[in-house]
Each structure stands twice: as C-alpha cells, then as structure tokens.
Amino acid sequence: MPEPAEAMTALRERLGELDDLIQAAALAGWDQQTYMPPGGASARGEVLATLGRLAHARLTDPGLVALLAALAQDTGLGDVDARLVAAVGRDADRARRIPDRLVGDIARHTVVAQVAWHAARAADDFAPFRPALERHVELRRELAACFPEVAHPYDALLHAFEPGLTTERLRKVFTQMREGLIPLLGAITARAVPPPLPGPFPVARQRELALQIAAAHGFDTEHWRLDLAVHPFVQSLGPSDIRVTTFFDETTLTGLFAVMHEVGHGLYERQIDPALARTIAGTGTSLGIHESQSRLWENLVGRSEPFWRHWHPRLVQAFGAAALGGEDLEAFLRTINTVRPSPIRVEADEATYSLHVILRFELEVAMIEGTLAVADLPYAWNAGMQELLGVHVISDRVGVLQDIHWAYGELGYFPTYAIGNIVAAQLWTVIRRDLPALDEDLERGDTLALRRWLGDHVHRHGRLRTSGELLMDITGSELDARPFLRQLELKYGALYGLEGHPR
Amino acid sequence: MPEPAEAMTALRERLGELDDLIQAAALAGWDQQTYMPPGGASARGEVLATLGRLAHARLTDPGLVALLAALAQDTGLGDVDARLVAAVGRDADRARRIPDRLVGDIARHTVVAQVAWHAARAADDFAPFRPALERHVELRRELAACFPEVAHPYDALLHAFEPGLTTERLRKVFTQMREGLIPLLGAITARAVPPPLPGPFPVARQRELALQIAAAHGFDTEHWRLDLAVHPFVQSLGPSDIRVTTFFDETTLTGLFAVMHEVGHGLYERQIDPALARTIAGTGTSLGIHESQSRLWENLVGRSEPFWRHWHPRLVQAFGAAALGGEDLEAFLRTINTVRPSPIRVEADEATYSLHVILRFELEVAMIEGTLAVADLPYAWNAGMQELLGVHVISDRVGVLQDIHWAYGELGYFPTYAIGNIVAAQLWTVIRRDLPALDEDLERGDTLALRRWLGDHVHRHGRLRTSGELLMDITGSELDARPFLRQLELKYGALYGLEGHPR
After folding, report:
1. Nearest one of B272, B270, B262, B254 to B214, comparing CA atoms
2. Which residues in B have their CB inside 8 Å of a CB on A?
3. Is residue A471 part of a domain?
4. Counting C-beta atoms within 10 Å of the first and last residue's C-beta, which end of chain B has fewer, N or C?
5. What pLDDT shows up at residue B414?
6. What is the pLDDT of residues A54-110, one digit of tens each?
7. What number of other Cβ atoms are within 10 A of residue B44's Cβ?
8. Spatial contact of B503 and B330, defined as CB atoms under 8 Å apart
9. Backbone angles phi, psi at B157, to 5 degrees
10. Residues 6+ away with beta carbon under 8 Å from A500
C-alpha cells in the first residue's frame, strides 16, 4: 500500500477521471433536452450508455476499492479527506453490491417499460403498462435484496437518493404531514378561490424579468445560462457552469417561478467548494436537500410578501396592471398562493403537493412489501386521491399514468420532492433566527445575506456531509414536518384570514 | 485467436466504445464554441483531456492491435470489412508509433505556445512567439522521426491530415498553381475592382435566407442545427446530428456564404453510410476531401450564375435592390467574385486563397528541413507575400502572426485548404460530364441530382477509401491543379472579359 499522501493523490486521480466521464454524460444529457436535433437520439443513447458503463467500471474497480479501504483505516487524514473517502466509499459500496447482471436487466427493462407506458397513456388505460410495472417491482425487490442489512426493503431504494433515511422515519414524518395538511386544506378550500391573473404575459418580457430576478439570486452570464426546455431542469457542469432551463407560456407566470426554482438548485451547485471539483463529491448531497434549495427560493422567498414588495412594481411595469388584475399586492399574493386540490402533481400548489407525494410513497411501499398487487394499483390510486385530496380521478391518464417515473422503475424517488418542502421549512426557521433583517433585505431585492448563509451552512460542503448530518448540524433535529406545517398555517392564515390563525 | 466473424464483432465492439468517446468529445467541443459560459472553460479542458486520453488508450490497446493484425491476414473478409480493418489499422499504427511522452510534450507545449502567440499578437511583434515556434518545429521533427520510412520528414506531418500524400507531389501541384495563378491574377487586377454591395443586410433576414438555401442543399431540422459562433464551423455527431455554425454581420453577405461552405461539409457527414456509425470510419476521409466539399458548395455552386439565377431574385426581395446596388445579376456576380490581393488569408477570394496557402506550405517545409531558421520567418513571410501576391505586409499582426495554427503547432495542416480547391475542381469536371442538366437544375434551385452524385461517389464511403483512392476511382487521376486553373480562367475570363479568355 502506498503512503497516505500518495494514496490520497492516487484517489483524487481516479476520481478526476470518473468525474470527467460523469460531466461528459451530464453535458450530453443537457444537450439532449435543449439543442439536439431529433435525429441525434439513437447515437446519443449509445454515447450515454458507454459513458455510464465506463463510469460504473471505474467506481467498482478493485484498485479503487483497495485504496478506499486503506484510506478508511487512516486516522491521520484531515477532515475533508476523511469525509471524501467516506462519501466515495458509500458510492463504491452501493455500486459493487448491485450485480452487473441486475444493472443490465434494469436498464433493458426500462426501455421496454417506457414504450409500454407511452402506449398505455395513449390508450388512457393502465392495463398495457401493468406487466411492465410488475417486472419493475420485481427487479427493485431484487435490488433491495442486495442490501440485506436494511430494516425495510424500501430503505434500499430510498438510499439511492437519500442515503441513511429510513422508511420508518419517513412514515412518521409523512403521517405528521397528512394529519396537519388535511384539516388545513379543508379550512382553505372553504374559502373562495382567488381570481386567476388575467395575463397575457409576453414571453420576451417574462424572460427579461426572469433574468433580472435570477441575477438578483446570483445568476451571472460568466457562469450561468438560461435555455428553453419542455420540462424545466438545471444541469451543472461543475460549479462554474450552471445551466438553467425553463418553459415560458404567455398565459401564466409559471415559467418565472420555474426559473426561481431552478436557480435555487443551481445556486447550490454554484456555491459548492471549488476544491471538491473532479472528486464526485462536488455536487448536492441528496435529492431531498437539493429540492429544499429550489423550494426555498421558489416558495419561501418567491411567494412571500417581502420579495414581491420589491418585484411587484416591476411586474406591473413589465406587463401592465390589467394583466395582473390590478395593482393590489395583497390580491396578487393570494393568487400566486392559491390552494386548490388538483389530480395532477406537477400542477399542485405548495399545500397540496406533498399529499400527492405521500400517496405515491404509500403505494410504492405497499408494492415493494407485496401488500398491494400492481393489478390493484389504479383502484388504490383513485381511492387515495379521494381520501387525501378529495379529488375524483376520471381516468388513468390523469391518474396513475400521469408521471413517467414508474416507467423508469424509479421507486424511492418521489419522497425526495416532499422532503424538499420539509427541509426547506426546517432551514428557514434557523435562517430567520440567524438573519433578523431578511425581510428588509428581500424588500430591497437583496439576497446576498441569504445566499451567504446557504453557502456557508449547506452549499459549500457538497457531498462531504450526508443529508442527515447536514440537517442535524444546522437544525439540531432529524427530518421533521412540523416547521413546514407551522409555516403553511401562518402564511395561509394571514392570506385567507383563517379561523384560529393569526391574521 | 477467435474466428473471423467473432473477430469482426469484437473489433466493432471496441470501435463502438472508441467512437462514443470521440463523439462525447466532439459534443464538448461544439458546446465550448457555442453555448458554454466562459466560467466552464477550465472544467471543459479537463473533460476533453480525459476523453482524449481514454480514446488514445483504446486506439493503442494491444488487444486491438492483435485483432487488427489477425483480421488483416484474413482473405475471407468482405470489401467493407477489409477496408475498415485497413483504415483503423492506419490510425492505430500512427497512434502507436508516436510515444506517449511526445504526445504529452506536444500537448503541454501547445498551451504555452498559445499564450506566447496571443502575447506576440497583442504586441504586434513576432519576437515573443519565436522561442515557442522553435520548440514546436523541434517537436514536429521528433514526430516526423517516428516515421523513418517516409521520403521527406514533412510527409509524416501531412499524413496526419492527408494519409498517403507526399511533399514531392504537393510541391509539383503547388508549382502548377503558382505558375497558373500569378499571371491570371495580373490580368484580373489590371481591371477595375467591382463596387462592393452597399447593404445593409439585416441579420434576421440573412439567417432566414441562409436557412432557405441550406434547406435546398439538404438541411432539415430533424437532423441539422444552425447556431452562431465567432468562427464558423460544422460539427457532426454521427450522420443524423449535424451542427452548422456561422457568424452574421449586417454589412456583408459573408455569413450566407459561410453557411453554404459549412453545409457543404455537413452534407458529407450526413450522407455517409449509416452502417459506418460507431466504427471511427464514419466520417470524412481527409481534411482535403472535406474541404473540397465545402468549397464546391460555396464557390462552384454558390458563386455561379445558374445558382444565382434562382436565388438572386429572392435576395433582391429580402434586402431590396438598393442594398444590392441594383438588380443586375451580372454586376452582382462580378462583385461576389471580386479578386483582390489582401494580406489576410481568411479574407482572400477564390483566386488568391491558394497562394496564401502555398506560402505557408513553403515556409513550413523549409522550417522542417532546417533551411529556414524560425528567427528569419517574418522576413521570409513578407518577401513571399510580395512575390506571390504583390502585397506589402505592414506588420507582424497582419502578417506572420495572423493565423493561430502555428501556435497549435499544426504544421502540415494549411495545405489541406488548397487541396480542397483543387479536388473540388477535379470532381466538378466529372460531375459536369455525368450531370449534363446540372445548370438547369441549379437555375430551378434543385440540387438533388448533385447531392446524389456526391453521396454515391464521395460521401457514403466515409473513410473506407483514402483521399488518393477516392480521387483515382472518380477522376482516374492523382491530385492535379489544372482543372482548378482552367475553371478559374474560364470563370474570370467570362466575368471580366479578359484577353485570350472566352467571353
């Protein structure tokens, strides 16, 4: 075995190559969703498969494993190095324990299942998708069986996105959520629905305003881009090349909120310690923490009164008062914070969104446990929508077939969306304590102190702290839905003058 | 050794992976010149270096070499497989014979030399670049020494771009060129220079018209893109994903001609046999042949009377007669075929361009031979410009420092630009014989027969035929400058009514 310093150098060299392959694939993925002509799809599939295979081989290479094992024994490592070894060790361990055969089976079946899902959606009928989903569940059970040490097989799926989180914990937190959200929802929906914004919002001006807001949140043309894509997303290619995408539609301001959401994700990547570049630890630590950053900027900042005190006059200037239904800020805030149960997750508001996720989580766990047969999924879906959201689902297309995630076999992914809401609220409690002048800052359009706080406490660490460690370090608590519920109650109480809620 | 069929399958698997790495690098290069934010440069350099290293390792892998050696012995291979084995064998042989140490030295020195070139250009003084170029020449001599079997060391440099071509042959052809071009140039420049087009040519309309012409030349949005870049180029990512770039300037139609040029390159890649995808032979066979395709579309089609009989009325409609100095087609043709010696290669016209290249070729050969000291290069440059083009060079910035190629150490590259002109003319002679109705086609804006001819005779073969084989198969001749000279004499004779030239 080499000396520790040499071993760290050797590790960083290996990680550099691996990270470069991941970056090349990330660029290919970004291009596929933004600029690639349709004819390029098949060649792109080959390139992505090769890059993925080469990256996987490097992560599972016995030489890397030996290096990591030796370094894990070394008590003389500095804090950064020790955490890096631990983070990479978790990745390598997970990658090695899933046999190549299973990885291949999953990849091949995902292609088949997508075709089946598209056909089922076109027919508005779950039946043609059923066998494909059954096979996905079977494969995910096999995958879970590679990790016999977990308390619940679904834990093994969760850990792909949220290392260390357990099904048991999530159940408790989601029960808190259900119990708090359903009565709140009842109180809000008893009130009249605020009128929608009349529009129109010409796309060019939306883009201009979105870029102004983005700039106030840290976007600059030296390190960022804004492009169009059918489904908004962000892709970072290292901390100095952050690519936001959105979709503008002149009838709504959705694209503007999508930019705030994606810039929130992007800011996380942008503020990661540059010393973590080319280590595979220079990215967000989990999907849940990542989503907390996008939700924080989209909802806690971007739907707040202080924020719009600064930006609402600019909105009026850009689109005219008529497009906004007048110049009344309070009416505008009620409209952008409208709560209305809908069958569709991606159209859901801040209060109902997590209930969509909880339904999916419960169904996924039941399918993995075997207590819910895939054949019964549509009935369970429709019953759950009625129970959680009071929504009657009229067909599979707007019901159980609405998301593509299950066609990818991605069980364990949906919870991260709700975790994002929960974590954002937990962080927000600490932020408000640490930054007593935050409202005044936002009223001036100034986000510098907030960005610095996020950079110091969350962003810079990259993957050197797990989501659980990060949350404990900052809030002194595990995942906890109460701050989220409290904040929603306060906000909607004030906006809608709900009984028992301070106005 | 495996059975031949298995060996071919094994070869194609290896080539597939190699080609995917090359494609990933090609995308990263395209993105770097189009959309990458400046902050991404350093990470991009790492990604490109890693992809290049991994590709090089695959091309020089002993397993590949053994497979190629076995397959080269196999007399039962079909024509396509045998040619594929030969083409890949040439690449692998060249890659293996250049030691990694030298590859690394060249790569490292190229970074240093570029900095020196930029500094020298800023100072408008060759002196700070001299030591860097001296080292480049030294390194290229070392590289040439890896191929002791060539007749002239410069052959080894040429072969990177034009396998099989010799310095001796090129000297003969370039001598033909000089001897024909200098008197022609004298006759033309004795005439009055046609007035320039007044303009303006609004960028949006230029783009629209460029896309219409591109569509008539085979561009479609399913398989192509048009983007903006400072220096126009094309990048193919396989035959179904062709990315043209250009630069529009409202004072000239340069961007329009650049699109025709780049679409000519792109059409070559687009019409390569799809069965060659993922073999590293599914691309143009040499830079010279590639350039012949761009020049053919830009000059032989795009500056011809039949072509403009169709497009000139559309140009008038787009920009107005005033912008074009009137509606006279003949005057327009004289203007877009203006010949005027200039110190700058990239601004040169069809008649003077090759003389710029010949000068660079002669200087490169002399430096490699050691008969010209790098210290004497600026004097030799200025003397050559006077002799070949009658141009007085006022400073190094517009003289010996005008191109970045030597900062990259790219000796042997410049000749391919002139080879493009020569080959285009050789092909054109055969095309005019095979397609007697071509002028009528072009007058209708119809290029289908021409595209089919190029597809059948040149494009589909990809790298399965070397440039020499291709030229011999199609024209029955080696590289020969006479068709180029004859075509220029005819064209300028007609346009300018030169003595002794048919009007």
Report:
1. B262
2. 16-17, 20-21, 23-25, 27-28, 31, 35-40, 42-44, 46-47, 49-51, 54, 221-225, 227, 237-238, 240-242, 277-278
3. no
4. C
5. 97
6. 999 999 999 999 999 999 999 899 999 999 999 999 999 999 999 989 998 998 899
7. 23
8. no
9. -75, -45
10. A493
Mean pLDDT over B352-367 rounds to 98
> In whole angstroms, what is the distance from residue A248 CA to residue A318 CA?
15
The count of CB pairs under 8 A between chains A and B is: 111
Give the number of other CB atoms < 10 A from CB of residue A164.
Answer: 14
Question: Residue A1: is its pLDDT beyond 60?
Answer: no
Q: Which residues contact residue A502 at a Cβ distance below 8 angstroms, ignoring those fewer than 6 apart?
A: A490, A493, A494
Q: Please, which contacts does A78-83 make with residues 24 or more away whose CB atoms are closer than 8 Å?
A: A80/A275, A80/A464, A81/A8, A83/A281, A83/A464, A83/A465
Contacts by B481-484 with C-beta closer than 8 Å and gap 24+?
B481/B173, B481/B174, B481/B176, B481/B177, B481/B180, B481/B422, B482/B176, B482/B180, B483/B422, B483/B425, B483/B426, B483/B428, B483/B429, B484/B177, B484/B354, B484/B421, B484/B422, B484/B424, B484/B425, B484/B426
CB contact under 8 A, A21 and B277: no
Residue A62 maps to a domain:
yes
Q: How many domains does chain B have?
A: 1
Question: ipTM, 2 decimals?
Answer: 0.92
| pTM for this predicted structure | 0.93
Catalytic residue among A13, A208, A262, A362: A262
**Is residue A21 assigned to a domain?**
yes
Q: Do A240 and B47 touch (CB under 8 A)?
A: no
* A501 has pLDDT over 60: no
Residue with tokens 């392959």: A21
Rounded to whole angstroms, the Cα distance separating B407 from A413 reads 50
Average per-residue pLDDT in chain B? 95
Inter-chain CB proximity B277 and A20 less than 8 Å: no
- To test the contact with chain A by mutation, choose from B18, B58, B235, B237 the residue with the greatest count of A C-beta atoms within 10 A, namely B237
Which element (helix H / strand E) includes A134? helix A130-145
Question: Residue A111 — very low, low, confident or very high, per pLDDT cuts 50/70/90?
Answer: confident
Position A159 in a domain: no
What is the 8-class DSSP label of residue A192?
A: P
Chain B residues in contact with A46 by the CB 8 A cut-off are 16, 20, 278
Spell out a b/e string for A87-96, using b for 16 or more CB atoms within 10 Å of the CB, else e. bbbbbbebbb
Q: What kind and span of H or E run contains A148? A: none
- pLDDT tens-digit readout, B156-193: 999 999 999 999 999 999 999 999 999 999 999 888 89
CB B408 within 8 A of CB B197: no
Structure tokens at B24: 């990933």
Give the three-state DSSP class for B224: strand
The predicted-structure confidence for B368-426, as pLDDT tens digits, reads as follows: 999 999 999 999 999 999 999 999 999 999 999 999 999 999 999 999 999 999 999 99
Joined together, the tokens standing for residue B433 give 């014989």
The helix (run of H) or strand (run of E) holding residue A243 is strand A242-246
Residue A311 CA to residue A321 CA, distance in Å, equals 13
Reference A296, options A179, A217, A180; nearest CA is A217
Selected residue of A12, A15, A30, A31 to mutate for chain B interface (largest B Cβ count, 10 A): A31
Q: In a mutagenesis test of the A interface, which of B23, B269, B271 is the best target, namely the one with the most A β-carbons within 10 Å?
A: B23
Is the bond preceding residue B200 a cis peptide, omega within 30 degrees? Answer: yes
Are residues B222 and A39, on separate chains, in Cβ contact within 8 Å? yes
pLDDT tens string A435-459: 999 999 999 999 999 999 999 999 9
Q: CA–CA distance from A1 to each of A68, A76, A81, B148, B380 (Å)?
A: 11, 15, 18, 43, 58
The three-state DSSP-derived secondary structure of A336-373 is HCCCCCCCCHHHCCCCCHHHHHHHHHHHHHHHHHCCCC
| Residue B27 belongs to domain spanning | 1-97
